[in-house]
């Protein structure tokens, strides 16, 4: 079923469906009417030779240069040429599709002033599977993601490069093979296509979706570890968390109680009065991360449905053109920086729980490094090293991109957001985080094998069975790199979360 694009109702799930599920898009008729009405205002202003930034003038420090009528149309092509100045490997196809959808939705608000045919061409490209090659690096997230979106715009006019049916080819060939007519940009079309932080918005929307699943999976891993370590579950009592009041902590503690329900592991004698922080603080840490995620989600929903453009045209009272800076990516950079910090912090507490599983001084009677033959065998000793490496890297990546402004364009653009830096490192943080959780899940499953006399509840049992589907019990030492890589993919895929939610219902 196609995702309806109307400028106002795009959500994270819709971005995922189009970017990863290859679902088509359909422009709402009312949205196209707004695009046409706004374009009529631009045509009128151009005819009247009004001074309009980026339409009848240059851009950036050159905005005081007034173009002749003969230059106005050609300028849009050269503007796209000059801005397609990125470098590095192409962004992933799902990220590129998310960016296209995000930009389309902005344009469908009817304030950008471009011709309707440009919006329709982007829709046709998404529906036919033409994905522009966009270099990952080069955007500073102010005036938008100009470099990568410049490469997107090149394909619209039959230039640049694109992916189509698994091949990389010229934009002209991709459009021809897909049956999508190319167009020529006219006044305003080029700048309106590229002037927003939409690659950041698209990448961030996908990361928020992935982080939501990852946080739930981290609660599953925590529940397995808590069970195998005979944790004192008083720390997860609903009354404690409602007394403080953070909604994320209330939800996290509720999830962990549901996941551990029905488990004999948590009814054993010999519990400590208070466990270490890495066990009993899990709901508070996870809760703070969940509340941060909610902030990021709210920010990106605003961005996906807002007018991130410059100039902005209003059709009321005969038409008005206002210049501002709604392309500025700072809100997105903040959202992604905060989310990266939250994910990294949850990785830190995951690694500390892992340490308690493998350390014989802390593991409530489990064998050293979760192996029967400690000395001859090292068990999961080195798997912890890998988790430590991922945590260390994430700590470095968690340094904010949003504080990294570097002036550009002869100091006309003297503050920039660096939101793409936040998006790029955020994706790597999540990738590393999947490895950290994968290792904790491996260790927790190994620990549960040493507690065979005790019964697990349905939530933990479902998670354990998925782990064992992919990774065998570690009876003797073997190379673990394949197991770790496999578990990283299992966490990323959401297979464990799906199995657990099938067993106990949807987690909060």
Task: Tell me about this structure.
The two termini are 27 Å apart. A hairpin with a 5-residue loop joins strand 8 and strand 9. The chain is 56% helix and 6% strand. It is built from 19 helices and nine strands. Helix 9 (198-228) runs antiparallel to helix 13 (282-304) and helix 9 (198-228) runs parallel beside helix 14. It folds into two domains: 3-196, Fumarase/aspartase (N-terminal domain) (Fumarase C, Chain B, domain 1); 204-504, Fumarase/aspartase (Central domain) (Fumarase C, Chain A, domain 2).
Number of helices: 19
- The helix/strand class is mainly alpha
Strand order within the widest beta sheet: 4-6-7
DSSP summary, beta strand count = 9
- At CATH level 3, the topology of the largest domain is Fumarase C, Chain A, domain 2
What form results from the Cα inertia axes? elongated
Integer count of domains: 2
CATH architecture label of the largest domain:
Up-down Bundle
The CATH superfamily title of the largest domain: Fumarase/aspartase (Central domain)
CATH class of the largest domain: Mainly Alpha
Oligomer: single chain
Question: Keywords, please?
Answer:
19 helices; two-stranded parallel sheet; Fumarase C, Chain A, domain 2; 3-stranded antiparallel β-sheet; 508 residues; mainly alpha; 6% strand; 2 domains; Fumarase C, Chain B, domain 1; 56% helix
């Amino acid at each position: 079923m196609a995702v309806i694009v109307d400028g106002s109702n795009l959500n994270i799930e819709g971005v995922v469906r189009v970017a990863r599920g290859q679902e088509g898009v359909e422009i709402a008729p009312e949205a196209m009417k707004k695009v046409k009405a706004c374009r009529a205002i631009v045509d009128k202003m151009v005819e009247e030779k009004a001074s309009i930034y980026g339409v009848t003038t240059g851009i950036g420090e050159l905005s005081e240069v007034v173009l002749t009528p003969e230059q106005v149309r050609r300028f849009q092509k050269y503007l796209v040429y000059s801005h397609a100045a990125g470098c590095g490997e192409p962004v992933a196809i799902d990220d590129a599709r998310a960016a296209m959808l995000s930009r389309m939705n902005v344009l469908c608000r009817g304030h950008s002033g471009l011709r309707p045919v440009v919006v329709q061409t982007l829709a046709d490209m998404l529906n036919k599977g033409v994905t522009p090659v966009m270099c990952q690096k080069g955007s500073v997230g102010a005036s938008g993601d100009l470099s990568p979106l410049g490469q997107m715009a090149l394909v619209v006019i039959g230039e640049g490069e694109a992916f189509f049916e698994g091949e990389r080819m010229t934009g002209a060939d991709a459009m021809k093979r897909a049956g999508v007519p190319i167009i020529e940009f006219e006044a305003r079309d080029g700048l309106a296509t590229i002037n927003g932080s939409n690659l950041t918005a698209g990448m961030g929307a996908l990361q928020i979706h992935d982080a939501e699943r990852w946080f739930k999976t981290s609660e599953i891993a925590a529940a397995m570890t808590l069970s195998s370590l005979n944790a004192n579950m008083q720390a997860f009592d609903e009354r404690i968390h409602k007394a403080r009041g953070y909604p994320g902590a209330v939800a996290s503690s509720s999830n962990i109680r549901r996941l551990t329900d029905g488990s004999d592991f948590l009814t054993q004698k010999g519990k400590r009065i208070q466990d270490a922080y890495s066990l009993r603080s899990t709901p508070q840490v996870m809760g703070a991360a969940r509340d941060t995620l909610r902030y990021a989600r709210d920010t990106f929903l605003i961005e996906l449905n807002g007018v991130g453009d410059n100039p902005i045209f209003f059709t009321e009272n005969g038409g008005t053109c206002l210049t501002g800076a709604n392309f500025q990516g700072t809100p997105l950079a903040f959202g992604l920086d905060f989310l990266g910090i939250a994910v990294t912090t949850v990785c830190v507490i995951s690694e500390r729980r892992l340490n308690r599983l493998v350390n014989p001084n802390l593991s409530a009677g489990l064998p050293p490094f979760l192996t029967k033959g400690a000395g001859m065998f090292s068990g999961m000793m080195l798997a912890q090293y890998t988790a430590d490496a991922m945590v260390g890297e994430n700590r470095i990546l968690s340094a904010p991109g949003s504080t990294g402004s570097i002036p550009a364009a002869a100091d006309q653009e003297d503050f920039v957001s660096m939101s793409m830096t936040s998006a790029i490192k955020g994706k790597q943080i999540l990738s590393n985080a999947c490895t950290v959780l994968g290792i904790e899940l491996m260790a927790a499953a190994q620990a549960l094998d040493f507690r065979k006399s005790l019964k697990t509840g349905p939530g933990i049992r479902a998670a354990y069975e998925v782990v064992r589907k992919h990774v065998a019990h570690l009876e003797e030492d073997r190379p673990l790199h394949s197991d770790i890589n496999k578990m990283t993919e299992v966490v990323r895929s959401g297979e464990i979360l799906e199995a657990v939610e099938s067993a106990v219902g949807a987690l909060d």
